[in-house]
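Page 47, continued from p. 46.
Same chain as before, 144 aa.
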Amino acid sequence: MANRASPALGQEALVELAERVERLCREHGRGGQLVALLEEAGAEDLLDEAVALATSADYAPTRMREVLDAIEGKLAGQGVHGLTRPDRAFSALPGVRSGTGGTASAHVCPLSRCTRGEAGQGRCALADRPLEAIRIDGSGRGRP
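Result:
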């Protein structure tokens, strides 16, 4: 059987994937409950692979989606549903305001792998690095 290359993900799929990576990062940073659940399911290797994919310089979004789907499947057996599924609720970031120079700032994923944005400093649990501080200039241009 030939190993065909995975098709590229469209923009909407990439946005959803980034939201799912954010949810995984947040859950992983909550003190080990996710690890315990995956160990019970015999699937801790999936979390290791997700971390490796997220922190790799050569990001593979199609494989990340497959790994997140597999994590969801394993956790469903533990009674946990929708762990990495975005809730699609939108609101302004609390505490993000214009500074004295009229420029707002936020802290975002240091890997540019997810949609996480916070007013205060936080930590990426997948990369074990602090969130990156960025200026928001209102031009609509984001960080790549």
